[in-house]
Amino acid sequence: MIERITVLGAGSWGTAFAKVLADAGREVTLWARREEVAEEIRTARTNESYLPGVTLPTLDATADPARALDGAQAVVLAVPSQSLRANLTAWRDLLPAGVTLVSLAKGVELGTLKRMSEVITEIAGVPDGQVAVVSGPNLAREIAQGQPAAAVVACADHERAVAVQRASFNSYFRPYTNTDVVGCELGGACKNVIALSCGMAAGLGLGANTMATLITRGLAETARLGVKLGADPLTFAGLAGLGDLVATCSSPLSRNRTFGERLGRGETLKQAQEATGGQVAEGVKSCSSIRALADLHGVDMPITDAMHRVCHEDVDPRKVGAELLGRSQKHEWS
Ligand SMILES: NC(=O)C1=CN([C@@H]2O[C@H](COP(=O)(O)OP(=O)(O)OC[C@H]3O[C@@H](n4cnc5c(N)ncnc54)[C@H](OP(=O)(O)O)[C@@H]3O)[C@@H](O)[C@H]2O)C=CC1
Ligand SMILES: O=C(CO)COP(=O)(O)O
C-alpha cells in the first residue's frame, strides 16, 4: 500500500488532490512554490488564493522540494503542463528510486508535442509503467468541497494503477483504473480546448444546441486524434473523455470555459489573461500544440484549429463560428 505521498504544486488541483489523499488516510506532504502558501497550509489549513473558504485536513506543507520528496512512495505532479519539464528537471535528482509518478496535468507540450507522461518518462528517465495519470470530471473546487466525483487512474502497469486507485479512494472520490494512458491524456488535454469554444459560444449569447454541438463534435475530433495515436476509442466515452468534457464545458468553475467566454464577449487575449489573474487556462496554449500534433498525423480538428486562430491569430470568434458551419458537408463519422 502507498502510504506516504508528496504532491508537487499547491494550486487549485494540487491542493484539492492533496486533500483527497489525506481524506483517503494517506500521509501527505504538499510542496508550494511560495513559502507563504506552504506556511498558510501548515498553520491555518487553508489555501485562500486557490481554494477560498475550504478547510484542509492535516497536511504537511513546505516550499523545500528536498524535504517534500524525502521518503515519498508516490509523487504527484500538479504544476501547469508547460512548466512541467522545467520543474521536473529541477526535482529529478531528488526522486526516490522506483517511486510511482502521478501526473495531474492536462496539456500537450508546445514544441515537442509530447503528452505529459512522455515528458515525465523522458526527464525522470523512468519506464512507462512507472507513470500514472489521473484524469476525469474533477473541477478542483467541487472536489475540495467533498462533492462526489469519479476519475480514471491510467497506467501501462495495471498493478501500479491499482495502487494509486487504492491510495486515493475515499467517501467522495471514486477512481477507476485504465491502461489507456494515451486516450486518458488526450481526453484531458483536448477538452480544455473544446471548453474554450463552449465558453466562446456562451459569450456570444448562444444556447444549449450550440453547446451540445461543440461538445459532440469536439469529442469526435478528440477521438479521431486519439485513435490515430493508438488510444482505445472506448476511453473517449468514459470519465477521461466525455465525463471531463461535459463537466468542463458546462461549468462556470472551469477556467478554460470562463476564458473562452471572455473572448466571446469581445475581450482580447491579453485582457482575458489579465482578468483571470494568472490562473492557468491550459487550452490557450494546448490549442496550438494539439493543432500541430493533429497536422503532423494528418488528423482534421476544426474546432481546435478555430480556437488556435482566435487565441493566437486574432481572428474574430464570429468568423470562425461561421467557417465551422460552412465547412464541406460530410458523413457524421468520416
Ligand atoms: N483546477 C482543476 O480543477 C483541475 C486542474 N487540472 C490540471 O492540473 C494542472 C495544475 O492545475 P491547477 O492546480 O488547477 O493550476 P493553478 O493555476 O490553480 O495552480 C498552478 C500551481 O502551479 C504553480 N506554478 C505555476 N507556474 C509554475 C511554474 N512555472 N513553476 C512551478 N510552479 C508553477 C503555482 O504556483 P504559484 O501559486 O506560486 O503561482 C500553483 O501552485 C493543470 O494541468 C490543470 O489542467 C486537472 C484537473 C482539475
Ligand atoms: O480539468 C478540469 C476539470 O476536470 C478543470 O478545468 P479548468 O482547467 O478549465 O478549470
From TrEMBL:
An example Gene Ontology CC term for this record: cytosol
Residues at which NAD(+) binds: 9-14, 140, 255
UniProt EC number: 1.1.1.94
Residues in Glycerol-3-phosphate dehydrogenase NAD-dependent N-terminal domain copies: 5-160
Protein name per its UniProtKB record: Glycerol-3-phosphate dehydrogenase [NAD(P)+]
NCBIfam families hit by this protein: PRK00094.1-2, PRK00094.1-4
Plastid in keyword set: no
The family this protein is said to belong to: Belongs to the NAD-dependent glycerol-3-phosphate dehydrogenase family.
Active site: 191 (proton acceptor)
PANTHER family registered for this protein in UniProt: GLYCEROL-3-PHOSPHATE DEHYDROGENASE, GLYCEROL-3-PHOSPHATE DEHYDROGENASE [NAD(+)] 2, CHLOROPLASTIC
InterPro entries, per the entry: 6-PGluconate_DH-like_C_sf, 6PGD_dom2, G3P_DH_NAD-dep, G3P_DH_NAD-dep_C, G3P_DH_NAD-dep_N, NAD(P)-bd_dom_sf
Keywords: Cytoplasm, Lipid biosynthesis, Lipid metabolism, NAD, NADP, Nucleotide-binding, Oxidoreductase, Phospholipid biosynthesis, Phospholipid metabolism
